[in-house]
Amino acid sequence: MTDDDSPQSLLNLASRLLQAGRVQEAIDAHERLLVLNPNLPDSWYNLAYLQQRARHCVVALTSYRQALGRGVSCPEEVHLNCAVILAEHLGRTDEAERELGLALTLNPRYVPALVNLGNIHEQRGDREQALDAYERVLTIEPTNALALARLPNLKITASGNDPLILQLQQAIARPGVTAAECADLGFGLGKALDSAADYDRAFAAYTAANHASRLSAGPNGARYDAAAHERFVDRLITAFPEPVYPSAPTVGQSPPLFICGMFRSGSTLVEQILASHPLVTAGGEIDLLPAMAREHLGPLLQEPGTAIEATRLAHLRAIYLDSVAARFPGAAFVTDKRPDNFLNIGLIKLLFPQAKIVHTRRHPIDNCLSVFFLHLSHSMPYAFDLLDIAHWYRQYERLMTHWKSLYGEDIHDIEYDTLVADFQPTTRSLLDYCELPWDDACLTFHKTKTVVMTPSAWQVRQPLYTRSSGRWRHYERHLDSLRVALGQPPDV
Hints:
Blueprint: H1 7-20, H2 23-36, H3 41-53, H4 57-69, H5 75-89, H6 93-106, H7 111-124, H8 127-140, H9 145-150, H10 163-172, H11 179-195, H12 199-216, H13 226-239, E1 257-261, H14 267-275, E2 280-282, H15 288-296, H16 298-302, H17 310-327, E3 333-336, H18 345-351, E4 356-361, H19 364-372, H20 386-407, E5 411-415, H21 416-421, H22 423-433, H23 480-486
Parallel strand pairs: 1-3, 1-4, 2-3, 4-5
Helix pairs in contact: 1-2, 2-3, 3-4, 4-5, 5-6, 5-7, 6-7, 7-8, 10-11, 11-12, 13-20, 19-20, 20-23
């Protein structure tokens, strides 16, 4: 054994690689270290964390178990991390809940576990249990911004003077509150004021929340580059100038039913309707296809005319289908409801020529306003400003026009306003397109027990309603610039 292969040298190397963000090399160093000395619980924890970052979810769970079995410090944190993998990446929320229970058995005041428990209850539609979890957090940390910000989703605010609104305002004004906390609280305050029909104050709260969210990213984050995004859309259009249909149909597992469009355009509702069908399982926002696009579409976008080799396409197709099958064993059809997969329709058709693509649409002003009212991540920097959202929307329209020119018959539009106004015929048309037989369960989608990991989790637990159509009119006095940016006439 050389000095470079000694346990201490490997430990030092793994630490340096971890700090440098060189994930795969750090994984390799940890694995070599643990072969030499497996009784290092903190190294097992670090290995599991890195495997989790690298999306090696199942092996990460195994490494976390090793850390627990060898006496890692703060085991409640390990159980929390296992719960996150199980819930967010593997769709195994029952097991995730058990992990959170183990964490809280070890430390009943462990706030991150309580917050995640409340989130799981929200995703399942268990209102009282979610409320209980967040209120337990607030008895431990009365100023916990995330728990307090979730309450407007669970409680009705009847007027602008509701005590919850005052509580949120006081929390925002608290000395020392961070920009990230202001963002959480501000979006919660906007939701509470909107529910109370106090629309001017709601708009002000959402505007301040978006500003705080942008600030929380730091000086180098959360800035939308409109020109760069236009160039990106240009490259996508150039990279896929004509339809590509393989000479022979792909055989084997059925591809998912892809649901895409703008965020907040009705995609969660459409997925819930489809998931109410006995042959369909809700897959939620599967993040595998965007990861594949980032890794493998680069050459096509940089050098038009470059092709992905057939063997590589077959490999990617197998990875995707095997991943979905492992997460949803035995499912006949699975939905992949990742809205921004509208960017990846070219890749979808390369991988799955027979894929069904459902495209959800909504009134442009309603759609943009709803995005502005949603606390999106810093990876979507267009979401913090109405004019940036409008620009993104126009580029989305431009790209969808191109995809439809190539694959018009393979893309089925669902207009949100038409769906809620004329539900049964629109649903029947959707099922016909997906080649699914009619089932009355689709008409009572709100009774279907699914895990919904989007901000629309509570909306799809209710019978169909039309109050979100034309919602923008409550805020009309604030939307002149948005209307102009979208090219909408004044009498829309």
